[in-house]
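Appendix B, Record 12. Input sequence as logged:
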Amino acid sequence: MTGETTEPDLIKKFTDIISHRGPDDDGFYFYNNIALGHRRLSILDLSSAGHQPMPLGLKYTIVFNGEIYNYIEIKQELINLGYSFASGTDTEVILAAYDYWKETCVSKFNGMWSFVLLDKTKNTLFCSRDRFGVKPFYYRITKSYFAVASEIKQFTTLPDWEAVLNRSKAIDFISRGIFDHTDETLFNGVKQLKGGHNLTFNLQDYSFIIDRWYNLGSAIKPYQGNFEAAKEDFKKLFQSAVKLRLRSDVKVGSCLSGGLDSTSIVCTVNELLRQENKQDIQETVTACSHEKKYDEQVFADKVIKATSVKAHKVYPDLDELFSKLDELIWHQDEPFTSSSIFAQWSVFKEARKNNLIVMLDGQGADESLAGYPPFHDAYLTGLLKQLNFAQILKETQSLRLLKNYNVVKRWQFLLKFILPQVIADKLASNSNKFLSKSANEEKARYKPVFKEDLKEMSLDQLLISNLPMLLHYEDRNSMAHSIESRVPFLDYRLVEFILSLPDNYKINEGQTKYIMRESLSDILPQEIKNRHDKMGFVTPETIWIQKNAEQVKQHLQSATEAMESLIDKEQVLTSFEKLVSSNIDINIGSVFFRILTLHRWLLKFNVKIAA
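Logged structural output:
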């Protein structure tokens, strides 16, 4: 939408940039100096009454991206309050909810959304993004206009567009492999509305305010029940979260890696569908690998056998990755951190091929259920602060048995807990070696902070350091194939419940996600329930790099020359030679991959590197 021009040709061009998403073109709405257009996936709005932009009388008009899963319950509440509805869509429910509850209506929604609502009675644009930022919301403000979009590439059609690199974010990306951790993007001048925030734009004076409408930390209240009660509560909440996300008039599939998270979703969906005798409609898609070390097919097959789902498999390979790299970067809007994003892309591509329009995925489980290895450090540090040496000894012994952790190094780590930030700074300094001297001297950079308990680490990973990136990948990869991806682990009721639990309900004797393993033990295959390695849709990235060293080296040389103000060319190429000659699968391949995708992104979007 624009602020000082209503030329239809400009707005058409502005939205046509993502016309590949499908044949749907729901038109445009013009009001004074405002233009609203909608081009994203609308295949789930099966009636013409669901077309957008959607008005409510003469007062409001909305463009909406996402799904409100509990719209049926909210709709009934509004009917009881005297409202009537002309469609069966959640879009109309948002309009009526806003009419009654105004800006506080978003707190009643359970779902994923970004929307812009024109309120003619107040002469404002009310903009909102869901609690965790599952759906994207970007904005750009100049002297001439205020523009918002679901994807940054839409801004490239604006008349004054010039793509300039945000250097501080590029440095974060190269050195830490992180982006989406602030409201800034890699494009200078393009910002995002963070998850759990609203933006109200005043059309009278072109001022705007941003407020945080959802605070996860404040929503958490300590759980009062015992472990047995927590198991029952978890199962009820998880089943409810999955059931809400099964609401659809089209086929629903699931991403299946063979890990605990995706298996829990697949098995719960299977249980719910069997209750309605609809289990034959369930399908899954799995990314496999010809490199056995990275292939989870044996675990996925156990889930497939236990549930009798119709299964689809894909085998991502390096040749296809390089041939699709520019296309991937175009859809992602920004560079990405590893080739695992390509594995996810391949899964959604296969899903679309088999007409799976809605897919359930497991994003958010690791961040809330303490699934990543650093959570062990936070848990043990918390126990040390409590002087609970008996439990520390039990946990370290369990970690050695389950995951082959080095107990001596673990104790050395714990003894430094008094100065935890020193540890984080030391870890961070190791990742700066690929930066140029000038880039290393720049101050505006992301610095990881060591978290000393599970709750604080979960909050950081859910809201800042990890999940926002994963949701970015998920949204772009799914929407590139006109698929709606739904993430039941991010049902806010479930997240708040999990974070309210005592630490030992989540990590117990070395087992992560303990509450979920025990709560769903009756439906999980035992091989999955007792699985303690972690992979996901991984790819043999370092092996691919080593086997295609010359090709990758040529790309790296071009990349380092083009980004000499950011990258230490000699350090990058020397480290690359060591990786190739070692012939060992060590986990530094992603550093080189980040450099490659950053360079290709600069070329694809014609981004200038400011001095």
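Residues 1-26, 42-48 have pLDDT under 50 and may be disordered.
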